Amino acid sequence: AHLSEFPSAKPIVELVPNFVDCSVTSPLFEYEKDGKKYLYCGFDLKQDLPEVRQFKYSICRYLKNSLKADI
Question: For the whole model, what pTM was predicted?
Answer without folding.
Answer: 0.77
